[in-house]
Amino acid sequence: MNRLLRIRKVPTLLRKLAPKGSLAIHEEAWNAYPYCKTVLTNPDYMKDNFFVKIESIHLPDRGTTENAHGLNEEELARRDVVHINIANDDEYLSRADIKPETSPSLFSSKKTGRGPLKDNWRETVEPVMCAYKLVTVHFKWFGFQKMVESFAHTQYPRLFSKFHREVFCWIDNWHGLTMVDIRAIEDKAQKELDEARKNGTVRGMTA
């Protein structure tokens, strides 16, 4: 999947100083479940000086795989491991992100009987899967590198937490669907998102 994004949810200072057109981000995504990859670039302005790569591998364990992405020694030394507990309302989220209908600690699925997720859910629930996400940020812009790295370090855990909380709490909407059903929903959602991007206002998370 390829698409062009107009990024408005970036640090305020960077948004004010960025030249016109420099926040047009090109997104490419590949889905070969259990492995997925998304790459964000800015080919018109920053070229090779910027990319964000998000790789996901989904494994049937409880977060016990130490090197799910097969990193080498140098990459492991630079890696910062962040554990995300989707049942923890106080972790990474802003107040606006927390809603009773998408809080796994409160939700109970009518279809599957899963939930609510209590304190020790990561050690006890069945079935279980861990999504291992590797975020690589490359940004070379004098004076802004640390700001962008810090922004990514706080916003991606928040994004992942919010998204997977919603996925869990919406289980009754997707449980039992076939891959054909899911692809049809994805296509419909993509069309609606593209239309909203053209004609609507910014929705969703803000930094």
Automatic annotation (TrEMBL):
One of its GO terms (cellular component) is cytoplasm. Gene3D superfamilies: 3.30.530.20. This is Phosphatidylinositol transfer protein beta isoform. PANTHER family: PHOSPHATIDYLINOSITOL TRANSFER PROTEIN (PTHR10658), VIBRATOR, ISOFORM B (PTHR10658:SF11). It comes from the Eukaryota. Residues 8-191 form the Phosphatidylinositol transfer protein N-terminal domain. InterPro entries: PI_transfer, PI_transfer_N, START-like_dom_sf. It holds the Pfam family IP_trans. It comes from Toxocara canis. GO terms for molecular function: phosphatidylcholine binding; phosphatidylcholine transporter activity; phosphatidylinositol binding; phosphatidylinositol transfer activity.
